[in-house]
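In the laboratory, one determines a bound structure by crystallizing the protein with its ligand and collecting diffraction data. In a computational setting the workflow is compressed into a single prediction: the sequence and the ligand go in, and a structural description comes out. We illustrate the idea with NAP.
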Amino acid sequence: MDTPPTLRKTALITGASAGIGRDYARYLAAEGYDLILTARRTDRLEELGRELSDAFATQVNVIPADLADPHAPMQLAAEIAKRDLQVDYLVNNAGYQVPGFFDQVRWEVQRDMMQVLMTAVAQLAHIFGPDMARRGFGRIVNIASVAAFVPGQQGGALYPSVKAFVLRFSQSLATEYRDTGVHVIAVCPGFTWSEFHDVAGNRTQMNKLPSFMWLDGPRVVTDAHKAVEAGRGPVIISGWVYKTLVTLLQIIPDNLLARMGSRSVRNAQARPEDRRETLPTPAAAKPQTKARKPATKKSVTKKPATKKLASKASAKKPAKRAERKAAPKAANSS
Ligand SMILES: NC(=O)c1ccc[n+]([C@@H]2O[C@H](COP(=O)([O-])OP(=O)(O)OC[C@H]3O[C@@H](n4cnc5c(N)ncnc54)[C@H](OP(=O)(O)O)[C@@H]3O)[C@@H](O)[C@H]2O)c1
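The predicted complex, in structure-token form:
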């Protein structure tokens, strides 16, 4: 691209060290954008920077950040200002899945995930959006997922929750920025080739999925960029498979889908490093080793209803817990 340097625009891409973020960087470099690349793995970002400078004469700034740190978005903004750069195009892409039942995973892991996939997304838009609107040009591309349309899943419970946030947030922001020159979209990929499922620890299971279920990163990026340029959206879904799936997900009642989701064990197994040390064991979940004592006159007169309910619960719950433990490690949603 022969765009004169003064007319060149700059894109900030989070999670640019791998997968969709790296593909986005390559695409925008070829389109004549300069880049600010961020993620935790600096070596990867610098290598990508060299590749793109050589291929497209792109001016690349690498600013490492761990977006799980609540201070990271402001620190990133301060470094961008210090380098006298501006952000015309923001790609909120960094993300990952945390498999395992909600209560089996350490709180810090859950909290960090919400910080990276939700709070940082909103805060970066909050930091850079106003200047885009003032200049009359801006692009905010938030990478959500088809999981945003899934009304509940067991295992990895926060993933559809945070992606639904990204979807709704993007829709609202697109409405607020209408007629300002700032285009906002939520991109909802289905299963996409990247390191996502390696990080989640379920690559082997995921590789068993048929090829028509898979998207490639450049396809997702091309669809996203064309849509945001044209002011389409605000919700963008790639490929007929996922367009059909999302249509079905919107037609079938949520309660029915949630019940179907409760039979799935695809995201059941927590990664060893994420596991809570000790799980609080509700009294009702303890296996009954002894025969229940016949209720004494005293206990019956004092708390008859509670006793009855507790004994029913204790008869059912151990089986459920045992099921959880035995659940095979399997595919996660993306
Ligand atoms: N692949 C799929 O099937 C799929 C489907 C739907 C949606 N998505 C979404 O697409 C986005 C990109 O995922 P991907 O598939 O490209 O996965 P990926 O290949 O694993 O890339 C994830 C990127 O996020 C960065 N990241 C992770 N934790 C971070 C942190 N704490 N701070 C800063 N950066 C962090 C990683 O960089 P570092 O490790 O170097 O920090 C990496 O660059 C995610 O939001 C994901 O939820 C993926």
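The longest strand covers residues 182-188. Keep in mind that any predicted model is a hypothesis to be tested, not a measurement.
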